[in-house]
Every structure is written in C-alpha cells, then in structure tokens.
TrEMBL record, chain A:
Family of the protein in this entry: Belongs to the bacterial ribosomal protein bS21 family.
Annotated GO MF terms: structural constituent of ribosome
GO CC terms: ribonucleoprotein complex; ribosome
Coiled-coil intervals, chain numbering: none
NCBIfam families: S21p
Protein's recorded name: Ribosomal protein S21
UniProt keywords, alphabetically: Ribonucleoprotein, Ribosomal protein
GO biological process assignments: translation
Pfam families (alphabetical): Ribosomal_S21 (PF01165)
Ribonucleoprotein found in the keyword field: yes
Top-rank lineage group of the source organism: Eukaryota
Automatic annotation (TrEMBL), chain B:
Highest taxon of the lineage: Eukaryota
Protein name, as recorded: Ribosomal protein S11
InterPro entries: Ribosomal_uS11, Ribosomal_uS11_sf
GO cellular component term, pick one: ribonucleoprotein complex
GO molecular function: structural constituent of ribosome
Pfam family, any one: Ribosomal_S11
Organism (species): Aromia moschata
Keyword line: Ribonucleoprotein, Ribosomal protein
Gene Ontology BP, a term: translation
Family recorded in the similarity comment: Belongs to the universal ribosomal protein uS11 family.
Coiled-coil regions, chain positions: none
Amino acid sequence: MRHASFIARTVFVHNNDVEAACRILNRILGREDILDQFRRTRFFEKPFQFRRRINFERCKAIYNEDMDRKIQFVLRKNRTDPYPGSS
Amino acid sequence: MLRNQLHVIVKDLLCIDKSICNNIRNITVSAQRCRDVVDRKEMLRSLPAADEGAAGEKAVDVDASIQKRIDTFPTADTPNKLFKGIPFKDLPIFNIRVSPNNTIINFTDAKGFPKLIRSCGIEGFKNTRKGTNIAAQATAITIGTYTTANVLIRCSKRGIKTVRVRVQGLGPGRMSSIKGLQMAGLEIVSITDNTKVSWNPPRPRKQKKL
C-alpha cells in the first residue's frame, strides 16, 4: 500500500537531536514488524524455515498471553486486603 | 658425593615436571583452537552483530516518549508549515540509500529532480571499506558541504541550510550518514524512512552459504 510521502514514516527533529529522532523512527519500524519483514525478504525463506518460524511464533504468543495474565493476576489491585499474607 | 647426586636427581625431576606441565598446557590450547575452527556456527554467533543503523529498534524506553510528544509526527497541515520561511513541501531532499556494502546520497530539489550524487565508492573508499559507517559519514560531510557552501562548486552555488532526509534500507551508513549531514552544517527538519518492504514479494535470491 502506498502512503503519502513525507507524511508516513516521518519523524521531526527537535533541537537538532538527530539521534533521538532516529531512535523513535527505528523503534516504530521495529514495533510494526517492518524491519523484520525487510530482513526476512532479503533471502528466500525455505519452507522448513517458514514452518519452524511460524510454529515458534505461535508458541511464543501463547506463552506471552499466559504470562501477561499471570502478571495481571499478581498485580491486581481491587482486593479487600491489598497485600494478603503480609500483615 | 651423595648430596651432590641427590641434587642432580631433584633437578632432573623438576625438569621432567615442567616439561609435563608444558605439554599438558599445549594440548589444551590446541584442543580449543580445533573446536573453534570446527564449529563455525558457534564462532559466527560469538561475533558482534553487524551495525545496521537500526539503533533503538528494541528499546522499550522510547515507547513512553513517543506517547508524550505530539509535535514529533506530521499532521495534515504539515506540508504548509514554515521552516526558516520555507514551507515543508518546498524543502530540498536528501535521499540516502543504504545497503550493507555501500551508501549512496542523492541531493534533489523539492520536486525530486536530482542535483548532486555522491557515494562511498566515489568518495574513494573501495571494496569492504565502502560498507562502513566512517565511509558513510565522510561521504555525507562532503555532499553536505557542497550544498551548504556559498561559493561556486559543481556548476552552481547553493547555500542551502534546511533540508529533509529520506532513508532507504538498512546498513552501517544509516545513522552515521544522517549525522554526517548534520556535521556539515545542515539543519535536518525531518527524517523519513522509505525502505521498500513487501509482504508478498517475488521470490528473493537464495540464502548465502556460511
């Protein structure tokens, strides 16, 4: 999909701090999976590699989901005794 | 006599001891070397990762600052916003094409007509030296001084100070070339990423054998 040039994927530089602007841009590109996709498409990904990567990502997503739930459970705040067992 | 003989025997024993120790040490060293050569993958893994100019890609601390800053990103009326009296859409552009082996910097006017071109190869860096951040920075400083200079260089004098930058690709020159432009005295208004990424590309070339 084409986007307007100098509107999409653009970051303004504040106080001549080029490095900070670059970091923000790179962070966004990294988070949106653009850089990873770029690296992945430099060379042909063989079917076995594709399968392995997809399976790994699937497992990772399941693990992350469970871990997030666990963390949310530990950090939950609406309790009558906020720190059970500590008094 | 006896004492002398004892002395000699003790000396001999010490010599034997030393030689055994040395031998053992030698064996271990050679074994380590062999392992390094045999397991190439391990050696490659132990090497430092190549600089791709993507610093901050995995930095989580940047996320908070992205949320805070509102004027970091362009809006619908950005094209008409004035920078040193020039609207954003009329600012000249520096196109930087980065690859692992070279960096090409192209200076164009606001409409995209090329005015100057400079690459690490033209700059005098050859072969592997082209693909370094130092080469990219030197190239950027050269082309930057061409554009900022108020004297006649390359058929015209420009005296341009305010520019926008467009980067394409990943490589060691990604960050350093932008820094080089800044060192040449240019004021960079914005940085745009123009890396061509496709989610259904034609079949790429086969992987390199390592």
